[in-house]
Design a protein that fits this description.
This protein is mainly α. Helix content is about 80%, strand content about 0%. Helix 6 runs antiparallel to helix 7. The longest helix is centred in the middle third of the chain and has 21 residues. The N and C termini lie far apart (about 45 Å). About 35% of the residues are buried.
Length: about 150
């Protein structure tokens, strides 16, 4: 489904997703995957109108995901990604933080929460999630940049 969607074959992607429903995937998983596809599609659009429309669709799918299961970490992460693309950084940080709270072993959620805080202009708020990120992923390719940013914000 993802490959079809990335090629612009939205109808084909929908067929693959429907097959997933018949195969017994959970509804929150399917809603979240649809949201991810729409948010990736929106990020690739050159027209601001097309991008906004795709992000609106993504947001709707993530809202449905979280209505089904408010503890589904991928739904919170996806919502954070959409909010980040919309430049709603405070809301993005909150969504990534919720993803990290519901799935405590997810370093990417912590990294993205810190990133959203820095985009918001609150690097001091990024310290705690980024320190937790470093504790989980000290050798990550992103770790050196995080360490340098934290050292510069002391």
């Amino acid at each position: 489904a993802k490959a079809a969607f990335e090629k612009g074959e939205v109808k084909e992607a929908g067929i693959f997703i429907r097959k997933g429903v018949r195969l017994g995937r959970s509804m929150e998983w399917l809603q979240s995957n649809f949201g991810s596809l729409w948010s990736q599609w929106g990020a690739k659009q050159t027209s601001p109108e097309d991008s906004r429309a795709a992000l609106m669709e993504a947001r709707r799918f993530f809202e449905r995901t979280l209505a089904i299961d408010p503890y589904f970490a991928q739904g919170h992460f996806g919502m954070g990604y959409v909010r980040l693309q919309e430049k709603r950084y405070r809301e993005a940080a909150a969504a990534f933080g919720e993803a990290a709270r519901t799935r405590t072993d997810w370093p990417e959620a912590l990294y993205m929460q810190g990133l959203a805080y820095t985009f918001f202009g609150s690097p001091e708020s990024a310290r705690e999630p980024w320190e937790r990120f470093l504790a989980l992923e000290p050798g990550s390719p992103l770790a050196q940049g995080v360490k340098e940013t934290l050292a510069g914000n002391q």
